[in-house]
Design brief:
Number of helices: 8
Structural class: alpha/beta
Order of helices and strands: HEHEHEHEHEHEEHEHE
CATH class: Alpha Beta
Helix content: 40-55%
CATH architecture: Alpha-Beta Barrel
Strand content: 15-25%
Shape: globular
Largest sheet: 9 strands, parallel
CATH topology: TIM Barrel
Radius of gyration: 21 Å
CATH superfamily: Glycoside hydrolase/deacetylase
Number of strands: 9
């Protein structure tokens, strides 16, 4: 009788261990990547994001004042660094991505030159996402130039999805460039409560899918929202490198 009780007890312990292991595996399979765009303008705020000690991904504008310095430091510290590549939007010139952006009127040589310039300015970069770029994301020719460059440099592409009919990941796959699309914009409203709500939205989305990419920006409100949600985000947060495919 005593042996029977021991066997039963061991059975339930085994089941409990298996259940805990399953939960652990489930948590590991649920990945949330958060990309912080527009890095390089505000050094003080950049260090505030670092102080969160979260595996965030930082995307630097090539021509921002501190991008070269900060990307060097962030990469050295082990954080994932990306190029936030200025690209032509649909409503250009009302929205102007700057002189060293990718435009549809540019030749392949010109496009490659601005990409190479950005690559040299943003240190330790492992990927690229678009800044603006709604027109470029629907322009197959220029996307192919970008993907050819990314393949050569062994970089991945994150489609910020500034337009719904983007061809970004479709063209990336043709060049065997790893890619992922943005699922949630965090701070299209600069309000801490709104951004907290968007972070919760990203976590809810994880119940339906295995990986979610959220994009925010280097501003005070996003920092405060991340700080508030830090403990809830931690179990799922990964560098964006772990969600590209």
């Amino acid at each position: 009788m005593h042996k029977t009780k021991v066997v039963i007890l061991l059975f339930f312990v085994f089941i409990s261990i298996r259940a805990d292991a399953s939960i652990s595996l489930w948590l590991q399979s649920k990945k949330l990547a958060i990309v912080i765009d527009d890095m390089g303008y505000d050094k003080k705020l950049a260090y505030k994001f670092l102080s969160l000690h979260l595996p965030l991904t930082y995307s630097f504008l090539p021509d921002a004042e501190y991008s070269k310095e900060l990307s060097e430091e962030f990469g050295f510290r082990g954080y994932t660094v990306m190029i936030h590549m200025p690209s032509e939007p649909l409503n250009y010139p009302k929205e102007n991505p700057g002189i060293y952006a990718i435009y549809t009127h540019m030749t392949k040589k010109q496009t490659m030159a601005v990409l190479e310039r950005a690559y040299k300015l943003v240190r330790h970069t492992v990927g690229l996402n678009n800044h603006m770029g709604s027109k470029i994301l629907t322009n197959k020719k220029h996307l192919d130039y970008i993907m050819e460059f990314l393949k050569k440099k062994h970089l991945f592409f994150i489609d910020s999805l500034t337009i719904n009919n983007s061809l970004g990941c479709k063209e990336a796959r043709k060049f065997h460039v790893l890619c992922a699309k943005r699922d949630v914009f965090l701070d299209n409203k600069k309000d801490v409560n709104y951004i907290v709500g968007q972070l919760k939205k990203a976590l809810r989305l994880l119940k339906k899918v295995d990986a979610v990419v959220a994009i925010g920006h280097c501003n005070k409100e996003t920092y405060l929202a991340l700080k508030e949600m830090k403990d809830k985000l931690k179990p799922y947060l990964v560098s964006v490198e772990y969600v590209v495919k």
